[in-house]
Amino acid sequence: MKLFGFAAGVAATLTLLSTTSAFAVTQISWWHAMTGANAEVVGKISKDFNASQSDYELVPVFKGTYPETLNAGIAAFRAGQAPDILQVFDVGTGVMMAAEGAIKPVAEVMTGAGMTFDKSQYLPGIVGYYSKPDGTMLSFPYNSSSPILYYNKDIFQKAGLDVNNPPKTWNEVWEAAKKIKTSGAAPCGYTSTWLTWIHLENFAAWNDVSWATQQNGLAGGDVELKINAPIFVNHFQALADLAKDGTFKYGGRTSEAKQIFLAGECGIFTESSGGLGDIVKSGMNYGIGQLPYDSDAKGAPQNTTPGGASLWVFGAKSDEQYKGVAAFFAYLSKTDVQEYLHQKSGYLPVTLAAYEATKKSGFYDKNPGRETPILQMTGKAPTDNSKGVRLPNLPQVRDIQNEEFEKMLAGQQTAQQALDNAVTRGNAAIKEALEN
Amino acid sequence: MIGQSPLRTFIAHAVLILGILIVAFPIYYTFVASTHTLQTILRPPLPLLPGGQLWNNYSEALFGGIGRIGGVSVGQLLLNTTIMALGVAVGKICISILSAYAIVFFRFPLRMTFFWLIFITLMLPVEVRILPTYKVMVDLGMIDTYAGLIIPLIASATATLLFRQFFMTIPGELVEAARVDGAGPWRFFFDILLPLSRTNIAALFVILFIYGWTQYLWPLLVTNSNDMNTIVIALRKMVSFADADTEWHLVMVTAMLAIVPPILVVVLMQRWFVRGLVESEK
Amino acid sequence: MAPQLAITLVFFYWPAGQALYQSMLRQDPFGLRTRFVWFANFRKVLADPAYLNSIKVTVVFSLATAIVAMCVALLLAVMAEKAVRGKGLYRTLLIWPYAVAPAIAGMLWLFLFNPSIGSLAYLLRSLGIAWDPLLNGTHAMILLVSAAAWKQISYNFLFFVAGLQAVPKTLIEAAAMDGAGETKRFWTIVFPLLAPTTFFLLVVNTVYALFDTFGIVHAVTGGGPGKATETLVYKVYNDGFVNLILGESAAQSVILMAIVIALTAIQFRYVERKVHYG
């Protein structure tokens, strides 16, 4: 027992030594999942915000990957120690929305602090995704990205394809991919990260077809998946056929395929706009195009939907803390802060003013790929099919879809079977989740 | 010493070298990566031989690079991690050697019940019981403390089991002889048991130090202050697989930094594994 | 003993009790709506074909991992004892990889073992092996077992070395004088004396393979392709930590605990009888 007591004593002393910060200002805690260059951006923004005023001190804390951060937030909430601000990834949006007693909508935080919150200042495609069906903004979009097409210009050259003219439709992608493969320019024609996000969720929005009932789940209630409609089946059958001889190469469920593209194995690649940084730094001779659409779809191209994460505010905090949070969100909305965030991190700007300012500065002339995702998201006013998708258990539904895709790509089932199974199993899981 | 044929010696060396190649290759590869430019690392496959960026990468990482991305200085990270690893190793060895001693050498009521009570803890890793444990830590006010980092990790039975296994090999005659000599339980423990357990303590110390050193999920959860971060957390913070640029060359240097202290521990403990002359005629 | 019991009670039994309670609840992640459902979660889990599948996967995975990890480590430890020259160096080189395994392995993954572009995949493909663990379930399982066993080799090696050190040299020399060959000496004298260590490692490796491997599964295969490598503990982790289905996840961990306690009891009852102490 002695030793134990000694260890605890030492630990307690060390703790006392380590907690000597000033308590004159209100501390605002912000738990985030930002890594790499984005972690640096979080640090810089927090420091600048703290320097810009003297009432609040924003304390950013890294809490691991997106799921780890969400779990840390949930555990803290259940233990009565929730942070003020929690960054939650897009697929966790449904979970947070269902937790009405735990969170305080951002719109309320802002108005409660006496600030006006003008939604029209923000990019509609992004704000729409993080709002309730009645339009109340629930969380503050911090980082958003959208899928775009990348291609390797050297490989295009070798295959005799037009280096300045990336494929625009999926059929053109398939043709170009076959040409790359048969000409021997590269061992594989096309690869993609995130099949679920790019080839189902964004595929549906971009082609203006329904992914699920109830406005893809945004309207809530009983949601049923629609992803076994013919347009999806044809698309996936094409992928499955191309996978047989390696023209399409599967890289994994999340962003692993980026390595295949970076290695120069595949000529064409679809991935989040946030993935641009690594491709630039690798020194590859690359080009960028819009996400391809399906030439059979009438409304295409419609608009793509955001991925990324937003900032949620927990409930049951003091007014003083909410004022601090509101002050931070107001700071975050400032044009120069958004410009910095957008240009340094590769995420989309949240406000229209920041987009215009960036455009004026000539940034897009130097970095043409950076504007593509914004144009994709703002080209048309979103329809019921293109505001994004929302489920209380989206990660689980994506798991199911991935499992079925893998069986399909391994040649164990057709696209029709894969998507039928994904719908049946997905619907059962959604129903189950809604009962909780 | 028993003589060996040259062929057998050769086979032994060959097997060992093969084993080292398999087991140690990833570390070598990390080192290789830490000596290349970011551009080389980003265009797989990575070369098998070191590049020429050793000095540049290491000086950039140590003087500012890691602190810039992670928000905490390298020194603080290493200090936190060392305290945690030492705390886990020493704490767990102390409590488990005592428990095993009690279980093996004393007869008291409910002895086996206690053994099983402790032993079952082997069955539930930190990660599975993490959320309820976190609640306990909050209630005890141990968030952001070294004690909070260390103590929950001590609650596991691996070490107790190992000591039990070892103590049971100690011949009854030895215990009897000690009793006849009039050695009390504490003298028996310190003069006989502890010296005999040396190799096992050394082995456990290495394992537990490394266990404490490489923890990720638990420190992530129970610390809310950047100043309490460990090197593994900093490492993970620097790596972005998806949406951001990762300065892989600096990451690989950090990885090497995370490897070096455990290696030192292994090398220092090495001496303990080699049986001394004193007990060679046991 | 008191300190360990105290810590165990506070940091283990209290949380474990909570897990047991949780396993009988249906609850949203934030704990805002709670229903007590008795054993409904258990019934649901046990009726789920995916769960039964993952039991099968787990048996294959755990057996293979424990056997591979222990055999390789024992071989290396015995060889390290034999090599008179360079003994210390060999030992060090074989132990320290353990230091890095968990921290670095996940990161190195992309560069080294990544199924499509890792250096290892290149090697296999240049040997003419159609290596595709992303879509081939058997390949994925082989990859997973190698990764899990690899991580455990240094650990086992360390304890086998410590165990071998404790074998009295006088006994071996006596046997050698009696004319026993090297192989015979090992199996009749050294191996039986190693039994306590081997038994300890058997228990630890089984528990490791069953419990401590979700990180590896997560990094290596994510349970795929399909559900070919979804082990029980990965399912607990994925359902609870990622998908936030708390009740069922808790029920799964309770079942898992029951299985392992039973397994260990069997090991103690039947295997330990054969263990030769002192």
From TrEMBL, chain A:
Key words of the record: Periplasm, Signal, Transport
UniProt similarity note: Belongs to the bacterial solute-binding protein 1 family.
Region of interest called Disordered, as start-end residue ranges on this chain: 366-390
Recorded superkingdom: Bacteria
Task of the protein: Part of the ABC transporter complex UgpBAEC involved in sn-glycerol-3-phosphate (G3P) import. Binds G3P.
InterPro entries cross-referenced by the UniProt entry: Bact_solute-bd_prot1, SBP
Lineage: Bacteria, Pseudomonadati, Pseudomonadota, Alphaproteobacteria, Hyphomicrobiales
One Pfam family of this chain: SBP_bac_8
Name listed for the protein in its UniProt record: sn-glycerol-3-phosphate-binding periplasmic protein UgpB
Localization annotation: Periplasm
Extent of the signal sequence: 1-24
Keyword set includes Signal: yes
Keyword Cytoplasm on entry: no
Database matches in CDD domains: PBP2_UgpB
Subunit structure: The complex is composed of two ATP-binding proteins (UgpC), two transmembrane proteins (UgpA and UgpE) and a solute-binding protein (UgpB).
Gene Ontology cellular-component terms listed: periplasmic space
Automatic annotation (TrEMBL), chain B:
Keyword Transmembrane helix on entry: yes
Subunit structure: The complex is composed of two ATP-binding proteins (UgpC), two transmembrane proteins (UgpA and UgpE) and a solute-binding protein (UgpB).
TM ranges: 7-29, 83-106, 113-134, 146-167, 188-213, 248-269
GO biological process, one term: transmembrane transport
Function noted in UniProt: Part of the ABC transporter complex UgpBAEC involved in sn-glycerol-3-phosphate (G3P) import. Probably responsible for the translocation of the substrate across the membrane.
Name of the protein in its database record: sn-glycerol-3-phosphate transport system permease protein UgpE
Similarity comment: family membership: Belongs to the binding-protein-dependent transport system permease family.
One GO term describing the cellular component: plasma membrane
Membrane topology of this protein: Multi-pass membrane protein
Keyword Transmembrane helix applies: yes
InterPro entries: MetI-like, MetI-like_sf
Keywords assigned: Cell inner membrane, Cell membrane, Membrane, Transmembrane, Transmembrane helix, Transport
Cellular compartment(s): Cell inner membrane; Cell membrane
A Pfam family annotated for this UniProt entry: BPD_transp_1
Ranges where the ABC transmembrane type-1 domain occurs: 78-269
NCBIfam families noted in UniProt: PRK10973.1 (NF008210)
From TrEMBL, chain C:
Subcellular location field: Cell inner membrane; Cell membrane
Domain ABC transmembrane type-1: 55-267
Primary localisation category: membrane
Keywords: Cell inner membrane, Cell membrane, Membrane, Transmembrane, Transmembrane helix, Transport
Transmembrane segments: 59-80, 92-113, 133-150, 186-211, 250-271
InterPro entries xrefs: MetI-like, MetI-like_sf, UgpAE/MalFG_permease
UniProt membrane topology term: Multi-pass membrane protein
GO cellular component, one term: plasma membrane
SUPFAM superfamilies referenced in this protein's UniProt entry, alphabetically: MetI-like (SSF161098)
Pfam family of the protein (one): BPD_transp_1
One Gene Ontology biological process: transmembrane transport
Subunit: The complex is composed of two ATP-binding proteins (UgpC), two transmembrane proteins (UgpA and UgpE) and a solute-binding protein (UgpB).
Protein's job: Part of the ABC transporter complex UgpBAEC involved in sn-glycerol-3-phosphate (G3P) import. Probably responsible for the translocation of the substrate across the membrane.
Family: Belongs to the binding-protein-dependent transport system permease family.
Name of the protein in its database record: sn-glycerol-3-phosphate transport system permease protein UgpA
Organism phylogeny: Bacteria, Pseudomonadati, Pseudomonadota, Alphaproteobacteria, Hyphomicrobiales
